[in-house]
Amino acid sequence: MINDVLLSTISEMMDKKFDEFLTPVNERLDKVDEHLHIIDEHLIILKFNQEHMAEKLQKIDVTLNYNVYNLNHAVKKIQENVDTITEILKINEMIPIAN
């Protein structure tokens, strides 16, 4: 009987000490959870911004490729026109014919 009372008293004391030890640990873990939640929110925003920027870059890439294609086509047309003008000037002997 005394042993049971003694064991019960020791158990209660251990529980109290354990609770005293765990309370600050739990408080710190709660703060860590709060900080992790904030970091998660920032990561979600960063991911959204990264995806948005990736879409914009893809559109810029498509536009650039389209413009390069059109520019090459325009330069080819200009060269053809210059070649035609050169031939006409040669035929009319307005420029010397290279040997």
Q: What is the end-to-end distance?
A: 127 Å
Q: Count all strands and give the number.
A: 0
Number of separate helices: 1
Major sheet characteristics: none
Range of helix content: over 70%
Q: Could you spell the SSE succession in H and E letters? A: H
- Which word captures the global form? rod-shaped
Structural class: mainly alpha
Please indicate the percent range of residues in DSSP E strands (runs of 2 or more). Answer: under 5%
Average of per-residue pLDDT values: 94
Q: What is the CA-atom radius of gyration, in angstroms?
A: 41 Å
Indicate the low-confidence ranges by residue numbers: none
Q: How would you describe the overall organization of this protein?
A:
This is t-SNARE coiled-coil homology domain-containing protein. This protein has one helix at 2-91. With 99 residues, it is an all-alpha fold. 0% of the residues are buried. The mean pLDDT is 94.
